Every structure is written in structure tokens, then in C-alpha cells.
């Protein structure tokens, strides 16, 4: 599989496609048109056709795409069979919500453990995930490849340094802090406050066309 030929933008949309197709498959639906897909995942159908052409799925006119074929492809590409172990650092409001959610809809990622400093939280479990003291990070984190950061901003940099030393490969940073990592570590930054503000800004300054006009 020449996976590295898939453009990054396409790769980012794969989980979206995967989730929708998985739902269709559960409902026993065998095929889907790019128009239906487009409406469901909110990606225009030209982009979907281009994305799918990268993995050799060419929709037939009047037939659409074969759901099972696509799912098989996505499973392989997204490493659905290989579980990526995730750790969560900081069991506050946001962290607690993630532990309850635990991304069970993606079969390939699982929060295996969480870390905090609070004596009330350490030693307990949330959503079946054990919470350890941050002092035990090095001892526990061995097989974990990805970390979710939901600590206060002031803690982000120090914890990142430790995570990098422990060999973490990816960090999903939910703190407003910008963290610095060496080149081989990938950081995705999600600042929910900024996302919300930006949505409100766009609503105000770039209103969408009213369908009734
Ligand atoms: P959130 O921002 O997730 O809503 P919160 O307001 O409940 O969180 P914060 O002060 O942001 O609380 O802290 C998030 C969590 O991070 C808390 O449970 C806190 O105990 C924990 N925490 C603070 N410092 C550290 C640290 N150095 N290592 C691990 N966890 C920490």
C-alpha cells in the first residue's frame, strides 16, 4: 500500500469517512453515492471523488461506492486492528469528560491510563480508566504512544518535556499553551475557546447565505 502518496488533507478526512461508512454498514447498506456521503460528512463531492481516487475506489455512475470495499480499505489504512494506546494528563472537567467518552467509536485508540496530582483523584478510576499520580508517569507510560494534555496551561511545557523523554510520538494539546517539541514529535493543538470565538467571529462577519432568500 502506497500510503505515503495520500495527501495529508485526504488522510485527515479518512476517520470521518470511516465513521460514516461504518454506520451504513451496520445498517446493512451496501452502497453509497458521493452525493450522500458529501451531505453526511460535509465535504464537497468533488473532493470526495478525488480523495477516493487515491485509494483506487472509483465510483460507478449510477451505482456509487461499495461500502464494504471502502471499509476494508479504511480499516487497513487507519490501522483499525492495531490499538494505539493513549494516556490523558490532567483529570479536570475536560479530562474527565474524555475519560467517560474514551473514543470508543474509534476501535483503534483507547485511553489506557490517566495522570493527575490531586489526592482525591489519584488511585480512583473514571470510565474504567485508572488514574495515577503524575510522579509515576515514567513508570507507567511505556507502551503509550499518544498523550492528551488537559492540564492547566502553566503545567503544559514541563509535562511535555517529560512525555518527550518518555518517547511519546504524538500530543493532542487542549491547553491554550503553545508547547515546543523536537521534530519527531507531532503536536495537534485544539484550543476550544479559540475555536468557539472563531466560529462566532465568522457568524458575525461572514454570515452564510440564508437558504430562503
Ligand atoms: P479543565 O480545564 O479541564 O476544565 P479544571 O478547571 O477542572 O480543568 P484545571 O485547573 O484546568 O482544572 O486542572 C485540570 C486538571 O489537571 C486538574 O484535575 C488538576 O488536578 C490537574 N493537574 C494540575 N497540575 C497537574 C500536573 N502537574 N500534572 C498532572 N495533573 C495536573
From TrEMBL:
Main location: cytoplasm
Domain CoA-binding: 79-178
Gene that this sequence comes from: rex
Subunit structure, interactors included: Homodimer.
Residues in the DNA-binding region annotation: 16-55
Xref: SUPFAM superfamilies: NAD(P)-binding Rossmann-fold domains (SSF51735), Winged helix' DNA-binding domain (SSF46785)
UniProt entry keywords in alphabetical sequence: Cytoplasm, DNA-binding, NAD, Repressor, Transcription, Transcription regulation
Task performed by this protein: Modulates transcription in response to changes in cellular NADH/NAD(+) redox state.
Protein name: Redox-sensing transcriptional repressor Rex
PANTHER family found in the cross-reference section: REDOX-SENSING TRANSCRIPTIONAL REPRESSOR REX, REDOX-SENSING TRANSCRIPTIONAL REPRESSOR REX 1
Annotated SMART domains: CoA_binding (SM00881)
Pfam families cross-referenced by the UniProt entry: CoA_binding (PF02629), Put_DNA-bind_N (PF06971)
Localization per Swiss-Prot or TrEMBL: Cytoplasm
Family: Belongs to the transcriptional regulatory Rex family.
Species name: Virgibacillus byunsanensis
Database matches in Gene3D superfamilies: NAD(P)-binding Rossmann-like Domain (3.40.50.720), Winged helix-like DNA-binding domain superfamily/Winged helix DNA-binding domain (1.10.10.10)
Binding-site residues, NAD(+): 90-95
Amino acid at each position: 500500500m502506497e500510503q505515503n502518496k495520500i495527501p495529508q488533507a485526504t488522510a485527515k478526512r479518512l476517520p470521518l469517512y470511516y465513521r460514516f461508512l461504518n454506520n451504513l454498514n451496520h445498517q446493512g447498506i451496501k452502497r453509497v453515492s458521493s452525493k450522500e456521503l458529501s451531505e453526511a460528512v460535509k465535504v464537497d463531492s468533488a473532493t470526495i471523488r478525488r480523495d477516493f481516487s487515491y485509494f483506487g475506489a472509483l465510483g460507478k455512475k449510477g451505482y456509487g461506492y461499495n461500502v464494504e470495499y471502502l471499509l476494508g480499505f479504511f480499516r487497513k489504512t487507519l490501522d483499525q486492528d492495531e490499538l494505539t494506546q493513549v494516556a490523558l494528563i490532567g483529570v479536570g472537567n475536560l479530562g474527565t469528560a474524555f475519560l467517560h467518552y474514551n473514543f470508543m467509536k474509534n476501535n483503534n485508540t483507547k485511553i489506557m491510563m490517566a495522570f493527575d496530582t490531586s489526592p482525591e483523584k489519584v488511585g480512583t478510576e473514571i470510565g474504567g480508566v485508572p488514574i495515577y499520580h503524575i510522579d509515576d508517569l515514567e513508570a507507567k507510560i511505556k507502551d503509550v504512544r499518544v498523550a492528551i494534555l488537559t492540564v492547566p496551561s502553566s503545567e503544559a511545557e514541563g509535562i511535555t518535556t517529560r512525555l518527550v523523554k518518555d518517547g511519546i510520538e504524538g500530543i493532542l494539546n487542549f491547553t491554550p499553551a503553545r508547547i515546543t517539541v523536537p521534530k519527531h514529535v507531532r503536536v495537534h493543538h485544539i484550543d476550544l475557546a479559540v475555536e468557539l470565538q472563531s466560529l462566532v467571529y465568522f457568524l458575525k462577519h461572514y454570515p452564510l447565505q440564508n437558504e430562503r432568500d
